[in-house]
Amino acid sequence: MDAAVSEKTLRRKSLYAAEFLVWAGEQGLQEIDVLPPSEATLCNFAASFAGKLAGGTAKAKLSAVKSWVQKRGLAWNGRDNLHNTLNGVERRAPSSSFREQRPPMKKEHLSILFDKLNLTGTSGIDHAMAAASTGCFYSQLRGGEILPFSSDPNEYNPNSLPTVKDLGPANENGDRKLRLPKTKVEQTRGEEVIYSPQPGCTSPTRAWRDHIRVNQLGPNDPLLGYRNNSGELKVLTKSVFLNRCNQIWSEHGIPRMTGHCFRIGGTTHYFIQGIAPDVMKMLGRWKSDAFLKYWRDLESLASIHLHRHHAQQSYSNRLQKSGTRHRYPPH
């Protein structure tokens, strides 16, 4: 069960389970009362979050308790009453518990970034920046799937992060596949993403090609390795990448972006291009329809798709009228 989730998620679940035990102790409950906990106990624990936490956070805490109980081979007693209690907690969630929606990255933001980067072949880190930005945007990557925490190549783990050889050659259409050894969802098997050539200066296939060439990277080097001014191999980190992006964008009045903004921005970009949601779900490696909540540019999406619908309807009507006027007699 533990192998299916990341270490970060495991730590969070352990903290939530410990929180439940502390709460149980404060209520005067004994070991027999929590191994396993009755539904009444679970409902009381859930109700303690009413007016304090968002419903999703309360559900996550109860989910952690459920994992903790089942891991010990005990029955989980959460049923309809617990479900109803959690719904009540969600309805009473304070406004302070809701985060503002993250702004989406836009293709225009990439263009601004590229204008400020030195992409003449003399700055290794800037070419790595270009590759990382287009990579995260066009393939809807999570930043942690390609960007490490350390710039030291000796600390780079190829079992968790891709190397140059994980980026496949271009096919006849110019598409390239990138194998991700480990992702948030697929901790052991990894996943693949696809890069397709895009119009303009922000094409990811060109950015990757130039990055690898300028930084003279070998097959086993970190995918986002780069040569510093001394020719020493370093690795672009997530913090350096985001700080540099936001420094450039802040000069143009663009709000601060997180790594996730690239992923949701890429999703919105493809929606605006008219890509079907089921195709988007596959390309973005979304495991549920939760990605639909990341439709950030609703005004543009509505305008484009409504105009497209009306145009198709008008075209169909013209075809029907044309067929009526030119109906031929049977042979």
UniProtKB/TrEMBL annotation:
Keyword field contains S-adenosyl-L-methionine: no
InterPro entries: DNA_brk_join_enz, Integrase-like_cat_sf, Integrase_recombinase_N, Phage_Integrase-like_Recomb
Any one Gene Ontology BP term: DNA recombination
This protein's record includes keyword Manganese: no
Alphabetical keyword list: DNA recombination, DNA-binding
Gene Ontology molecular functions: DNA binding
Superkingdom in the source lineage: Eukaryota
SUPFAM superfamilies hit by this protein: DNA breaking-rejoining enzymes
Protein name: Tyr recombinase domain-containing protein
Originating species: Gymnopus androsaceus JB14
